[in-house]
Write a structure and sequence with these properties.
With about 260 residues, the protein is α/β, with parallel strands linked by helices. It contains 7 helices and 10 strands. It folds into 2 domains: about 140 residues, P-loop containing nucleotide triphosphate hydrolases (Rossmann fold, 3-Layer(aba) Sandwich), CATH 3.40.50; about 70 residues. The chain is globular and about 55 Å long.
């Protein structure tokens, strides 16, 4: 489904003398295969290149070396069947909830009646039936992110890329959205790549966790979640294997910081 092959990325950065610029390596030989319907989390410290890798997958950035393929087709620009959900919601304040959710279909040239019908369906899926005529400023942060998720789903993407979508929310809202999104994913079986710096979130949501090293980002370890079979409708945080795996990942990240 999604194949990342030996990806490198460099950014220009001012050198220590402030007299010139140098090439700063952000991603170092990243390779990754994601299967159809799989839920993968990219986990690592801030600055390790998680978001950069996600944007390369989305076709928003080009790798300096290496390649990304979706269904054996190279990703060289944004695709309609690969959609992103951002941390900052990105809703248009002058548009209603329904109009925001329908916006990608409007860009695709879908007629108003059809696009609003599809958008209403996905707003219902994310728990926002009855809020179609509201505006973003009338919604809580969690509700705004639900609109963002519905907006990404209306195109029925093959792959959903999510860049720390719940990071700005309070703990209770974040856990509720995690549970609700898992139920949506379980229903739709969309392939998901999810960026997070939270160990517990990665374990709660994922089939596999890709741990990235500190900059430059490399694949340090790929971990099969020991609680993935219990995550739908259950409290995986109460399980012993959750605590043990969280401890192991925390030690891995701590050793990376002190290396």
């Amino acid at each position: 489904m999604l194949k990342v092959s030996r990806v490198y990325k460099f950014f220009k950065a001012r050198d220590s003398s402030e007299r010139g610029v140098r090439a700063m390596k952000v991603l170092d030989d990243i390779s990754l295969d994601v299967g159809r319907g799989e839920f993968i989390s990219l986990l690592g410290a801030s600055g390790c290149g998680k978001t950069t890798l996600l944007r390369i997958m989305a076709g928003l950035l080009r790798p300096d070396r290496g390649s990304v393929h979706v269904n054996e087709q190279p990703v060289q620009a944004p695709r309609r069947d690969v959609c992103m959900v951002f941390q900052n919601f990105g809703l248009l304040p002058w548009r209603s909830v329904l109009s925001n959710a329908a916006f990608p279909l409007e860009l695709d040239g879908v007629n108003r009646g059809k696009r609003e019908s599809i958008a209403a369906e996905y707003l219902g899926l994310v728990g926002l039936s009855g809020f179609e005529r509201h505006f973003p400023h009338e919604l809580s942060g969690g509700m705004q992110q639900r609109v963002g998720i519905a907006r990404a789903l209306v195109r029925k993407p093959l792959i959903l890329l999510m860049d720390e979508p719940f990071a700005a929310l309070d703990a209770q809202t974040r856990e509720k959205l995690q549970e609700d999104f898992l139920a949506i994913w379980n229903q739709l079986k969309t392939t998901v790549v999810f960026v997070t710096h939270a160990i517990d979130e990665a374990l709660v949501l994922s089939d596999r966790i890709v741990v990235l090293s500190s900059r430059p980002g490399r694949v340090d370890r790929v971990i099969d979640s020991p609680v993935s079979q219990y995550r739908i409708g259950g409290d995986v945080r109460a399980r012993l294997e959750f605590a043990e795996q969280a401890h192991d990942i925390r030690e891995l990240l701590r050793s990376e910081r002190t290396a």
